[in-house]
Write a structure and sequence with these properties.
The complex is a heterodimer of chains A (319) and B (348).
Chain A (H helix, E strand, L loop, with lengths): L2 H31 L7 H23 L3 H26 L4 H24 L13 E2 L10 H5 L3 E2 H19 L1 H11 L1 H6 L4 H28 L10 H11 L4 H20 L4 H4 L3 H20 L18
Helix pairs in contact in A: 1-6, 1-9, 1-10, 1-11, 2-3, 2-4, 2-9, 2-10, 3-4, 3-9, 6-7, 6-11, 10-11, 11-13
Chain B lengths: L3 H26 L4 H13 L2 H26 L7 H18 L4 H30 L3 H24 L18 H6 L8 H18 L1 H11 L1 H6 L4 H28 L11 H11 L4 H18 L2 H5 L5 H14 L1 H15 L1
Helix pairs in contact in B: 1-2, 1-15, 1-16, 2-3, 2-13, 3-8, 3-11, 3-12, 3-13, 4-5, 4-6, 4-11, 4-12, 5-6, 5-11, 8-9, 8-11, 8-13, 9-11, 12-13, 13-15
The chains are: A mainly alpha (319), B mainly alpha (348).
Chain lengths: 319, 348
């Protein structure tokens, strides 16, 4: 197979696999930048996947072609509401944020499976009839070289993910709101002294991560998994968390990290078609993304500096 | 009336009660009878000796995986990698169990030791990277989970067996299984592992609270800089903590490997023993004795829940919600503490 054809198989696949991770990780960046650790990304994705699938199955006959789009919006909305639990615990109740995040993970999966059992009478839902299909982008896919690589065979949600990562960067680094959010995560007392409502900003940040996690989960469910069961979201949220840290708490860094995970994952899928990779035992391709991440972190990425006030509840008047 | 110590014990108890009450509430909403539901759970966990045996069997790995998470927490480290360390311990114990024959007095300890070492090795990597290069242990342990999952599968397929999906049964000399215990409990899968688990808890308590090394480990957990200033070797303590944590996790794997199952089969996903260990450690307040109680509670809930669909029509997953809510209430202990103090003031 020619080199170009190999790229043509790998790159769209990489972006396809990366999209849910990008969305969730960008949300995670918001939460963590405001000083709230979010181990609960996994749970938020589970909630998003659950809502996305249930919504699609229920309203498919009414909404027709719009179903998946409305479903991911519904998933965003519900997951955002769901994430308030995490905000309530970690901001208002001053809970240990890691513990609260773990609770979110358990709760989302428990609720999702309980309701699935309740509504469908079995451990998993049916397959959705109208997922996101991969398409060629009108005109752009005809551009030589770039067209086949980046504009054909991709679901529109993949572009949405990349666009939202840039929107996230803009909001976080180019708007007053972003500045406030970051200041709350670095030095909440200074922010408070300047009249910024620390509690409010942190609630909003956690809800943004809820919305993005829900979006990520539903996009995963409606592009890759296509149904909801205990095995729909297994570790993608943790991978997104890794992307947040790998990307040094920066939306574009998270985008890069998620794309890297997607790339490594697609290698293990298409590996057997690629001459050089075909001779390598499959296990090496399977573990490659994870080993490469560790090596990258240990080697050239170096020490990542977390936001200063991360993990600490803000108590007015304390030093 | 309410000393701090008492409040610390009350919080998990109140959390459990609130969690169970919320579970009852959810059952009510969905039209189930909560009393029937919880009765089914109770019968499913303690109804007769068979269920009791199964419950203890389930509690055994939870104690060890809970200890693993708790031990790392005490040194200020979050070991999400217990899952992977469990795989490695499981695989190592089975590998020793199937590959040669030896008298039990050598074979069994060797299998257990192999599991501990394999888990420890899997904990050593994130510990080393954290201590020497400052790499976040959370990411490395998450990555190590996947590496463990896939490598263990590959080792089973291509090294231990010839393309089979399952190893052979371990030799009886390397098994924790006991006919006596099985007969006692109407042929449940109960095995001697619980002795190992309780002994592990004792070791953790002794190590952390009665030795200089334990003091250093806890000290690093409280304040790294102060410990460094006091002349402690922070890096070495971080690595040691992850290694010991990994060893506990490896033992949890051995409980499944040479206890419950007696083989390793190719896995498509995680066992959740490690992730549930996080919940166990948190509810148990990261203390050895607390972990035993918490593991017992979660093991009971998990095994008892299996009886809920047949006897009360309630989906098993209800228990997952209850466990999540218990953790949530433990996390929000500030609120409970505040309420207790409030109650104390009014009572005066």
């Amino acid at each position: 197979m020619a080199f170009f054809e190999i790229l043509q198989t790998i790159i769209p696949q990489a972006i396809f696999f990366a999209a849910p991770l990008i969305l969730t990780a960008v949300g995670g960046v918001f939460s963590e930048r405001s000083g709230v650790v979010n181990i609960g990304l996994e749970g938020l994705m589970v909630m998003g996947a659950f809502v996305g699938i249930v919504f699609s199955l229920t309203f498919d006959s009414v909404l027709g072609g719009w179903t998946p789009w409305v479903a991911i919006i519904a998933a965003m909305f519900i997951s955002s509401l769901f994430s308030i639990i995490h905000a309530l615990a970690s901001v208002t109740f001053r809970a240990d944020q890691v513990v609260s995040g773990v609770a979110i993970n358990f709760l989302a999966l428990g609720l999702g499976l309980f309701l699935t059992e309740q509504w469908y009478g079995k451990g998993q839902t049916d397959i959705v009839e109208r997922p996101f299909y991969s398409t060629d982008v009108f005109l752009l896919s005809d551009i030589p070289i770039i067209g086949p690589l980046f504009f054909s065979g991709l679901a529109l949600t993949s572009y949405l993910a990349i666009i939202l990562a840039f929107v996230g960067w803009f909001v976080l680094f180019k708007t007053p709101f972003g500045l406030r959010l970051r200041s709350v995560g670095e030095h909440p007392m200074a922010a408070d002294t300047n009249g910024i409502n620390v509690t409010k900003i942190r609630y909003i940040a956690v809800m943004i991560s809820g919305a993005m996690g829900g979006l990520g989960g539903s996009v995963y469910a409606l592009t890759i998994a296509l149904n909801f069961s205990h095995a729909t979201i297994v570790g993608q949220g943790f991978m997104s968390l890794a992307a947040v840290i790998f990307g040094k708490w920066h939306p574009l860094g998270a985008l890069g990290a998620a794309l890297f995970f997607g790339f490594a994952q697609s290698l293990s899928y298409v590996g057997s078609d690629v001459p050089l990779l075909a001779d390598i035992p499959q296990v090496y391709l399977m573990i490659a993304p994870y080993v490469l991440t560790i090596l990258a972190l240990a080697g050239f990425i170096g020490r990542a500096e977390a936001p200063k006030a991360i993990g600490k509840p803000y108590i007015k008047g304390s030093r | 009336m309410f000393s701090n110590r008492l409040v610390n014990i009350l919080i998990p108890i109140i959390s459990v009660i609130l969690g169970l009450l919320s579970g009852a509430f959810i059952m009510l909403i969905f039209g189930y009878n909560p009393i029937q539901g919880y009765a089914a759970l109770w019968n499913g966990a303690f109804g007769d000796l068979y269920f009791l045996g199964e419950t203890i069997r389930q509690v055994t790995p939870y104690i060890l995986s809970g200890l693993a998470v708790a031990f790392a927490f005490r040194t200020g480290l979050f070991n999400i990698g217990v899952e992977g360390q469990v795989f490695m311990g499981w695989l190592a114990s089975v590998w020793v169990g199937v590959s040669f024959e030896a008298p039990m007095i050598i074979h069994l300890p060797l299998a257990i030791l192999a599991a501990a070492l394999a888990g420890a090795a899997w904990g050593f990597v994130p510990g080393l990277l954290k201590a020497k290069l400052g790499v976040h242990e959370v990411i490395v342990t998450i990555m190590m989970n996947y590496i463990a999952l896939y490598s263990a599968n590959a080792i089973v397929r291509h090294v231990i067996t010839d393309n089979a999906d399952k190893t052979e049964q371990v030799a009886p000399t390397a098994s924790l299984g006991s006919e006596w215990l099985e007969q006692l409990t109407y042929f449940s899968r109960l095995h001697y592992g619980f002795v190992v688990a309780l002994f592990g808890a004792l070791i953790m308590w002794f190590l952390l609270n009665k030795t200089v090394r334990g003091f250093e480990l806890r000290s690093v957990g409280f304040n790294k800089d102060a410990s460094h200033y006091a002349g402690m070797n922070v890096s070495r303590n971080i690595i040691l903590s992850m290694v010991i944590s990994g060893a506990f996790a490896g033992l949890a794997g051995a409980m499944e490997g040479i206890g419950t199952f007696g083989y390793y089969s190719v896995k498509s996903g995680f066992t959740n023993i490690g992730f549930d260990g996080i919940a166990v450690a948190l509810l148990g307040g990261n203390a050895a004795i607390g972990v035993i109680f918490a593991a017992f509670l979660f093991g009971t809930l998990k095994i008892g829940a299996l009886n809920m669909p047949t006897q009360a029509g309630v989906p098993t997953e209800l228990v997952e919600i209850v466990i999540a809510l218990i953790i949530f209430f433990v996390a929000s202990s500030y609120m409970i503490r505040w309420l207790i103090l409030r109650f104390k003031k009014e009572g005066k």
